[in-house]
# Entry
Amino acid sequence: MFSDDSAALEILLEFGLSPAADTTWEHDHPEPAKTLEYQLMTASAYGNLERVRLLLESGVDPAYTSPDGNAAWTAAWRHGHRDVADLLRAAGAPTVDLDSEEQLVSAILAGQTDEVDALIASDADLLGRALERFPDTKSAPASQGNLGGLRVLLALGVSMDLALHQALWHGQVEAAKLLLDGGADTSVTDASYSADAAGWARHGGHPAAIALVS
# Structure
């Protein structure tokens, strides 16, 4: 589900998976998501343009909003995937006005330096509030290999030590190299598992990532 390869989804669609199919893990939820709706939300947040296109062509509602109020368009835009957001909008997804913290996160993850600078210039405390509210602003670009977003974060002086763990775990070698060049500390351990960068690389099992920190 989190890779760019949609071959398995294409097979399921070929053999009859439809937008009406419920998820199997939310059967006790009063409003369970449909399987393909869930896929649309995930693909939008991860910036998988071709999967979003496939799902829309298969009849998934571009205006889908999850039970907790998240919309596919918002997920795409806030995570900096503006091409995906544009596709959803063109297919009929309604847009919403984002607040300043959401706008900043979107600009960071889209790699829009000028937009980021303008937002921060108008509110000196905005970056701190945005990162506290959306902590995945640091981890998401690392795990997805979003080099543009990582460059903006590094330029802002944001600590990216724990983001390095995510890049290594997911085998995002270029992202890990960028973070290491930007000063990420390989000795820092996370609060949950007390693992350092090398431990996360070994856990991910990607040889090239392991070699970076061995």
Q: What stands out?
A: The chain is about 55% helix and 0% strand. The mean pLDDT is 91.
